[in-house]
Design a protein that fits this description.
Number of strands of chain B: 2
Oligomer: heterodimer
CATH topology of the largest domain in chain A: Rossmann fold
Strand order of the largest sheet of chain A: 6-7-8-3-9-10
Helix content of chain A: 25-40%
CATH class of the largest domain in chain A: Alpha Beta
Structural class of chain B: mainly alpha
Order of helices and strands of chain A: EEEHEEHHEHHHEHEHEEHEHEEEH
Largest sheet of chain B: 2 strands, antiparallel
Shape of chain B: elongated
Number of strands of chain A: 14
Number of helices of chain B: 5
Shape of chain A: elongated
Radius of gyration of chain B: 18 Å
Strand content of chain A: 25-35%
Distance between the termini of chain A: 38 Å
CATH architecture of the largest domain in chain A: 3-Layer(aba) Sandwich
CATH superfamily of the largest domain in chain A: P-loop containing nucleotide triphosphate hydrolases
CATH architecture of the largest domain in chain B: Orthogonal Bundle
CATH class of the largest domain in chain B: Mainly Alpha
Helix content of chain B: 55-70%
Number of domains of chain B: 2
Amino acid sequence: MEVNYAIEASLHKSYSKFELNIPRLMVPKGFATALIGENGAGKTTLLNILAGIRLDYQGKITYLGRYSDRQREELSEVKEKIGYTGPGGYYLPQWKIAQVAQISELLFSTFRKECFDMWCRQLAIGGDGAANKRISSLSDGNREKLMIAGVLSRDTEILLMDEPASPLDPLMRERLCEIIRDYLLEDEGERSVFFSTHNIADMEDVTDYAIIMANGQIAEAGFVEDLKEKYVYVRGEAEDIPQAKKTLFRISSGKYGFEGVCLAKKLEQLAGCDISLETPSLSQISVAVMEHSRNMERQG
Amino acid sequence: MKITQNSGEPIYHQIASQFKNDILAGKYAQGEYLPSIRRLAKDLKISVITTMKAYEELAGEGLVTAVQGKGFYVNAQDSEMLKEQHLRKVEASLTEAIAAAEIAGLTDAELMDILQTLLAMKEEE
């Protein structure tokens, strides 16, 4: 399968106690990519760099195979193509919802007010008299929905979303998945979404590609269907626990047996053990990779 | 199309086999395009990569052809190949039946009886 990339980057950034070190980041074009990792793994830093919110980094970014990060700052046509939603104070607290529309109209030539109003109604942001409500009076969920309405009212090709699911209730998370699928469908293969999430299970059915981060680095990345073949979920009997501990990526064991995630190519090391195999979920893979990275870190 | 999340059978495989049945049953005309991968993902509420993998499985079996930028269209199903596909299905089902009969301790003659009874019932329909 031939894949083009919405974003390719090589990035480095060090704080006093933290280092982001990504020699090769690739976000496939035409798909939804999830950025997964523990708190402090560097997800927000990475998204902020890609969105142009942080400019203090070393490295290079290429958008849509043809624009550099410098062009993103200098050319409005590039800025127009990238939408960002996130937890920070992107809209100032004293703004009214109506002002969000006015300011967006000034900033982005493709912003359409009628589209924004439609999304505000559809996502039930603020209720009656919403236009006069201030950002500061909105709940976290409504503020997130407002940002989503803002980017959906523009003609973008890349959506960068920092934890879009977290502030949303379960129904709205479903709606978010639909919104992402609709967004990808619109230009069939030309649009891409890159979102970070802790709610892996809620977002799994909309995740095509996953990038798992740990300690400022990419610990694993790939198309979800490929990852589900690379790893297997294994259950087995108590007497095989010693062998399983040597083989499995992540294991939980007890009196009655063990279960955990194993690299498929290492399965033969469990030959002779009485085991059953399942296709792992993206959550199971992610947790295993994150825990494995943490253990490696501890061992130095 | 029915998709079961926890059946143990990968979702892409479930999708591929339902399309396969439909194609072999002649529900798609030769040259007809399947729904686009992103359209199908939206309709089935699953990820794009899953529908893509399903279509690639169909392409691998020669049932559809991928066209860059356009999607997947249904190939001409030549009748020999169709027959071969169905034959394989019959063999697989009968093999399964034989295995079940062994477990149940049926003799070959008893198994043949069951098959003949079923065939007779079918004819009466």
